[in-house]
Write a structure and sequence with these properties.
Layout: E1 2-10, E2 14-17, E3 23-33, E4 40-46, H1 49-52, E5 60-72, E6 75-87, H2 90-96
Antiparallel strand pairs: 1-3, 1-5, 2-3, 3-4, 5-6
């Protein structure tokens, strides 16, 4: 899977040694997606991929990732493990973001026909017979 956005936070490098005696490292970043309703997503690179994917705050990237969940003591934990990144052109990234607010699909927001609602659809939205406070 792939997600596009701008890096907004660079979290500290985590390092350690496994039970088998092998060194490991993990680096996390927070990416904010483009569009009218941006989302913030925390992801990480693990091992050698930390060094091969240097990311900078304020720059836009496309991040390729896998999602993995695991259970521990009855609780579930989900990781977004990135395996590749590529820089995006800032102008192209903003244009590629999905646009909202265009024309709705035909029939969207219209009352369904053939449903026995007890209301006259020509009077739909009228405040005369409406008992809702808004």
């Amino acid at each position: 899977m792939e997600i596009e956005g701008k890096i907004i936070r660079d979290l500290p490098l985590q390092e350690g040694v496994s039970r088998a005696g092998n060194p490991w490292k993990k680096k996390e970043w927070v990416l904010e997606t483009f569009g009218q309703y941006p989302r913030q997503v925390c992801f990480h690179f693990f091992g050698d991929r930390v060094d091969s994917n240097p990311l900078r705050i304020g720059e836009s990237y496309a991040i390729s990732y896998d999602i993995e969940s695991r259970e521990y003591n009855g609780r579930w934990y989900t990781d977004i493990r990135a395996f590749a990144s590529r820089p995006l052109d800032q102008g192209a990234a903003q244009q590629a973001a999905p646009a909202f607010g265009g024309e709705p699909a035909p029939g969207y927001g219209q009352p369904a026909s053939g449903i026995a609602s007890g209301h006259d659809s020509s009077n739909f939205g009228s405040s005369e017979s409406d008992d809702l406070p808004f």
